[in-house]
Design brief:
- The chain is an alpha+beta fold.
- Strand 1 and strand 2 form a beta hairpin.
- It contains 2 helices and 2 strands, in the order H-E-E-H.
- The two termini are 15 Å apart.
- Helix 1 runs antiparallel to helix 2.
- Strands 1-2 form a two-stranded antiparallel sheet.
- It has one domain.
- The longest helix has 24 residues.
């Protein structure tokens, strides 16, 4: 349980730091590629079953720096888990 929370915290921190880094990098011409964003997903659609309606949709907005920070977080996770939990 504790290791799952650690993984969640590392990934959350990686996304936040990556987003901030991407926002900063998009204004600097030499590292503007870190701020390149991608939209992944599909628009919402309704499934009408006469009794109730289900609306489904999925959308993620990511940038290169977020992906890099997530990879770094996944690489650092085993070392941090070993350090914290023995």
């Amino acid at each position: 349980m504790k290791q799952g929370l650690l993984m969640f915290a590392i990934l959350l921190a990686a996304v936040v730091v990556g987003n901030l880094l991407g926002d900063f990098a998009s204004g600097v011409s030499s590292i503007a590629w870190l701020g390149k964003t991608f939209d992944i997903g599909f628009s919402t659609f309704d499934l009408n079953l006469k009794i109730f309606v289900i609306t489904l949709g999925f959308h993620i907005h990511v940038c290169v720096s977020e992906i890099l920070m997530i990879i770094i977080g996944l690489i650092c996770y085993p070392k941090m888990a070993k350090l914290l939990f023995g």
